[in-house]
């Protein structure tokens, strides 16, 4: 699905930058195999993308899996067609149910049909995550700017944008206005797979930010207002203003996006930051609007560590630098360090398990070429002999890992290699 000449040039650039044949070959193989393994062109011209080893399409993962291909698609029209097909399918799914995070290829009822929420046969899972709605807008905007093609943005985006703004506005006051409920009762289910209070989630008070039931990890939020998710929402609302004005000449849609973005930005500034005695003014991971704050980070994107990647803050922004120092320390309860690695893990996986996604994000948000090289070599050396990225691996034993093949993690490794090679 990627032009061999385009891939060959990129592989040579990675080899020159890293001086490492193994890293270059891991990059080449992942780029050549990753997308064909998960993407299927459908008769309607859209593209269905499997989330690695799960037979469903997550809005978040299907966009994140494409990030390195975006960097190489400008001179590859056939690849552009595949990526545009992904955007169009995502936008159609959003209109079907903006609260859903994962969808079936056809309305076959696969997934979690017994969850206590408003399920339809199209929906694999209906865990509402604010970031799930950010990723399709982000992908559409980037493809539009990279390719300049008029067929990237059509009426599907306008319909999805209206649905997204409506939902995010309702969820600014979840307690009083939201129709969303979610409960799950399955064998061996974790507590983070369901919501408290009969499916409403923990009590929150309005902040200006938009509430989210679940995190990018698909674990339930602890405090309701996920700060990195709202940061990403702010960024894509800015993108939406541009698309509404330049493509649709729709002043009303642009104004709605601008107003909601201002609300969210104010909410982050007023409620999403705390003064830490050692690190100074930093961002919290979650808040509830009633004074509770959670200082941590999760390996999944969007994260606090990924702020520069999502476009919310520059890598040298003082508040980001201070937050980053805390996140990459023992002050973050999900930062693990051992013989083979040190990095951010997740409550979604066992203790002392570091995520390759988080290691790649650490490199992608670093201002140091030396740190990017070190992290690429670390990722090279911690595949447990498989040559593939995993969901997570143990800091004392890389052969102890979760998910033998994780498409998103492979994509993040490839993006780090490209950026290190100067391809941005």
From TrEMBL:
GO molecular function: hydrolase activity
Protein's GO biological process: carbohydrate metabolic process
InterPro entries according to UniProt: 6-hairpin_glycosidase_sf, 6hp_glycosidase-like_sf, GH125
Pfam annotation, one family: Glyco_hydro_125
Sorted UniProt keywords: Hydrolase
Keyword Heme appears in the UniProt entry: no
Keyword Hydrolase in record: yes
Domain of life: Bacteria
Entry protein name: Glycoside hydrolase family 125 protein
């Amino acid at each position: 699905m990627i032009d061999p000449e385009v891939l060959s040039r990129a592989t040579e650039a990675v080899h020159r930058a890293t001086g490492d044949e193994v890293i270059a070959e891991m990059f080449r193989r992942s780029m050549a195999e990753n997308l064909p393994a998960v993407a299927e062109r459908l008769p309607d011209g859209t593209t269905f993308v499997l989330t690695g080893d799960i037979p469903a399409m997550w809005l978040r993962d299907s966009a994140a899996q494409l990030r390195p291909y975006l960097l190489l698609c400008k001179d590859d029209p056939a690849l552009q067609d595949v990526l545009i097909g992904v955007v169009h399918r995502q936008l159609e799914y959003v209109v079907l149910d903006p609260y859903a995070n994962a969808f079936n290829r056809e309305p076959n009822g696969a997934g979690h049909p017994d969850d206590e929420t408003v399920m339809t046969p199209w929906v694999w899972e209906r865990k509402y995550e604010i970031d799930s709605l950010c990723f399709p807008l982000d992908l559409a905007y980037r493809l539009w700017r990279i390719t300049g093609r008029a067929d990237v943005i059509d009426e599907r985006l306008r319909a999805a944008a209206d649905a997204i703004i409506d939902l995010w506005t309702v969820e600014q006051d979840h307690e009083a206005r939201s129709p969303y409920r979610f409960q799950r009762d399955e064998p061996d289910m974790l507590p983070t797979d369901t919501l408290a209070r009969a499916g409403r989630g923990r009590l929150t008070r309005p902040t200006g930010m938009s509430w989210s039931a679940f995190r990018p990890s698909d674990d339930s939020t602890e405090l309701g207002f996920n700060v990195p998710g709202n940061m990403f929402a702010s960024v894509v609302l800015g993108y939406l203003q541009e698309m509404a004005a330049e493509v649709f000449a729709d002043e009303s849609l642009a104004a709605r996006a601008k107003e909601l973005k201002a609300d969210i930005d104010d909410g982050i500034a007023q409620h999403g930051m705390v003064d830490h005695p050692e690190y100074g003014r930093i961002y919290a991971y979650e808040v509830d609007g009633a004074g509770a704050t959670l200082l941590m980070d999760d390996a999944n994107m969007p994260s606090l560590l990924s702020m520069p990647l999502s476009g919310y803050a520059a890598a040298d922004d003082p508040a980001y630098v201070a937050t980053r120092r805390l996140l990459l320390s023992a002050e973050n309860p999900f930062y693990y360090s051992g013989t083979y690695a040190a990095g951010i893990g997740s409550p979604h996986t066992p203790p002392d398990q570091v995520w390759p996604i988080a290691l790649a994000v650490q490199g992608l948000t670093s201002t140091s070429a030396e740190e990017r090289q070190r992290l690429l070599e670390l990722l090279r050396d911690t595949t447990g002999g498989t040559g593939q990225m995993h969901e997570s691996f143990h800091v004392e034993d890389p052969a102890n890992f979760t998910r033998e093949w994780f498409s998103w993690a492979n994509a993040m490794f490839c993006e780090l290699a490209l950026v290190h090679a100067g391809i941005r």
